[in-house]
Amino acid sequence: MQRQLRKKSKAKWMMQFLLIICLLFLAACSSNTTSNNSTNTQPDQNTNENNTEEAAETSGELTVGIEAEPTSLDPFNSTDGNSATVQSTMFEGFLRFDEKMNLVPVLATEYNFNEDATEITFTLQQGVKFHDGTDFNAEVAKENLDFVRDAENGLARASFFSFISEVTVNDEYSITIKSEEPNSAMASYMAHSSASFKSPEELKKKKEDPDHNLDRNPVGTGPFKFQEWKDSEQIVVTKNENYWNDQEQPKVDSITFLPIVEASTRVNKLKTGEVDVIFPIPTLNAKELEQEENVDLYVGSSTNVFYIGLNFKEEKYNDLKVRQAMNHAVDKDGLIAQIADGYAQVADSAIAPAVYGYAGQSVYEHDKELAKELLKEAGMEEGFKATLWTRNTTEFVSVAEYVAIQLKEIGIDVEVQAFESGTLFEMLDAGEETDLWIGRWSPGTGEADYGLRPNFASDRVPPNFNNSGFYINEELDGLFDDALRTPDQDQALSIYADIQMKIYEDAPWVFLHIPDTIIAKGKDVNGIYVLPSGGVHLNLVEKQ
């Protein structure tokens, strides 16, 4: 039976209640799906509760095909989804998200905010041990949070925890996180995959020897423990026989993650039974798998938003009419039909419906004549030249080329330039020579502040965060702060709705589409669920 997470702040209880009823969660289609947009219950959740004891005795080896090798097995030092999925089998934090994006307890039993939401206090589970036998407690949690925030350690997730001003140990199993400014999103931040804890022995080794590789020595408290990482071949985790949570013991002996770059290869290995689960899946391959009798295909809305970023340092984008023209020029329905094969929906906000605080807007309808008229009114009747940066993957290049064709029809001559993802991110972070770029954004916290602030706040321009378009709007800056300060969640939701309206009307992006999340598994695999963020929860997986 799942322990219940109790909260002592009435205002924050309301936030949790609204989170439950407002978030759209990823639903999985049954096998041989006939509709790209169907939303059924996740088939992995239908295990007969009367057979719990029998299911707990199930054993086996699970093989998972992922699109790329993880960059790191350290939650503090990675930002990619492949790493997070592998890490989540071994590491745990105070909280996590379930398939409905509800906050559920893991290493915390309860939490509460103070009245002005500048502090959040967690009461911790007792009797928890890391894989190396060391104890988890408040001192260990503080040591971890201090370590990741220390700029000298150079960790990729340091900025994610920048909202923390101080961490205080109250007693062995109670800890308080403080923020200089009110921040009602702190609980969601602490449910993020990066907010996981590693053994203090590993931190000690790193402090004593800077060459100790935390990326390759994962020691957490989770249901699986690290066995091996063979570069470009596989990562293997095995059952933690001493896992602290009696109610959620692992049901397979091991999970092997295979990096399989080619999507068609992943699909073929699933069809032949060489792998049990694959993700992500390109839309064309999804249509193929719909016809497979021994495959369950999962399709559901994600928290990702595709967009075209505009650099406001370029004078040509300073006129609102130009930005509106570009939004009207792109046929989003056509893009979804031709490029996404129907597995997407039009983006009617800067965040997706599955993000807490989302508020949809009236979309920019496809209208080439209106787009041309707006350019004429802006004094750009002859159009202009532009450069569009994109990642060099098939999906991103296809979107970029489609957009270029659409913009060409209103006189904007676009040159598409494709780069490896890391190179592109470095170019955007440098903030030099940026013109247009194809972006895809998803807030790992599942809520509006992290969905909006990194991309549109004035203090988040390069090299700080994601506002690579140097979009400056002081009115929005004030609203972001107001939304976090208020303890009244109804008021906060109203402010976030106002922010989204202003962003959509001001068009700092060309808003494109929200892609579906698609994964597939063999019919003999159960007990997994998929988050709208695209993460796959494998801790209770079983193989019949």
Write the layout of secondary structure elements.
Layout: E1 6-7, H1 10-22, H2 52-56, E2 61-66, H3 81-87, E3 95-97, E4 103-105, E5 108-113, E6 119-124, H4 138-149, E7 166-171, E8 174-178, H5 186-189, H6 200-208, E9 224-230, E10 234-239, E11 254-259, H7 263-271, E12 277-279, H8 283-289, E13 295-301, E14 305-310, H9 320-329, H10 332-338, E15 344-346, H11 368-377, E16 384-391, H12 394-408, E17 412-419, H13 421-430, E18 436-441, H14 448-456, H15 474-485, H16 489-506, E19 509-511, E20 513-522, E21 525-526, E22 529-530, E23 536-537, E24 542-543
Parallel strand pairs: 1-5, 2-11, 2-12, 16-17, 16-18
Antiparallel strand pairs: 3-4, 5-6, 6-8, 7-8, 9-10, 10-11, 12-20, 13-20, 14-18, 14-19, 15-20, 21-24, 22-23
Could you describe the 3D structure shown?
Residues 199-215 have a biased composition (Basic and acidic residues). This is Glutathione ABC transporter substrate-binding protein. One of its GO terms (molecular function) is peptide transmembrane transporter activity. Residues 34-50 have a biased composition (Low complexity). Keywords: Signal, Transport. This protein has 544 residues and is α+β, with helices and mostly antiparallel strands. The protein has 16 helices and 24 strands. The chain has helices at residues 10-22, 52-56, 81-87, 138-149, 186-189, 200-208, 263-271, 283-289, 320-329, 332-338, 368-377, 394-408, 421-430, 448-456, 474-485, 489-506; strands at residues 6-7, 61-66, 95-97, 103-105, 108-113, 119-124, 166-171, 174-178, 224-230, 234-239, 254-259, 277-279, 295-301, 305-310, 344-346, 384-391, 412-419, 436-441, 509-511, 513-522, 525-526, 529-530, 536-537, 542-543. The strands form six sheets. Strands 2, 9, 10, 11, 12, 13, 15 and 20 form an eight-stranded mixed beta sheet that branches. A five-stranded mixed beta sheet has the order 1-5-6-8-7. A five-stranded mixed beta sheet has the order 17-16-18-14-19. Helix 15 (474-485) runs antiparallel to helix 16 (489-506). It starts with 5 loop residues before the first strand and ends with a strand. The model is unreliable at 1-56 (pLDDT under 50).
